[in-house]
Specification:
Strand order of the largest sheet: 1-2-3-4-5-7-6
Number of strands: 7
Structural class: alpha+beta
Largest sheet: 7 strands, mixed
CATH class: Alpha Beta
Number of domains: 1
Shape: globular
Number of helices: 4
Distance between the termini: 25 Å
CATH architecture: 3-Layer(aba) Sandwich
Order of helices and strands: EHHEEEHEHEE
Length: 173
């Protein structure tokens, strides 16, 4: 399965993917904490499509995995002791990486993370960073499995989760 940059015309499909993912993971022990309409918001999806920073993996035409890769991060990232001094365009940040549960266990999250690393290298970034709800063991395992390092934990605010503990990961390029 190939990963591709989603186009502006994919808005409804991407939005539908995230809504199904949220529904399918609602009772999961390792749900991402996302809420429909809040995260990923329609504005995030739309702007990411317009900027060309939203990537999808499809199976038989259906989106089975998606993520955003850009240079934006929560202000809480300033409180993390990152391994590199990189900032701004020197840092790629992975957001909203999700895989439909029926496809879990096949290494798709790792494949998406590897793709983000490749994008970051191609853009001249010095590191790739991300946050995960603390205790989301499948996500943590996927990132560690492709070479990310856990660099800390911090309580941070997002609209969908409120003040919550997150684990932070970094991949140095």
């Amino acid at each position: 399965m190939d990963i591709e940059r989603a186009g502006i015309g994919d808005f409804e499909k991407v939005r539908g993917f995230y809504h199904r993912l949220i529904d399918d993971m609602a009772d999961s022990a390792f749900h991402p904490g996302w809420k429909k309409g809040i995260y990923p918001s329609d504005d995030l999806i739309r702007s990411s499509l317009e900027e060309g920073s939203l990537f999808v993996m499809r199976s038989s035409g259906d989106i089975i995995a998606a993520m955003v890769v850009n240079h934006e991060c929560n202000e809480g990232y300033a409180g993390v002791s990152w391994s590199s001094e990189a900032s701004g365009d020197e840092v790629a940040v992975i957001h909203a990486l999700g895989v439909m549960p029926r496809f879990s266990g096949r290494g798709l999250a790792r494949e998406m993370a590897r793709y983000a690393i490749s994008l970051a290298k191609d853009s001249g970034a010095r590191s790739v960073r991300l946050d995960v709800l603390k205790g989301n063991l499948p996500a943590e395992k996927a990132y560690l499995g492709v070479g990310f390092r856990r660099v800390g934990e911090l309580r941070m605010f997002y609209e969908d989760t409120g003040w919550t503990d997150f684990s932070f990961f970094e991949y140095l390029l």
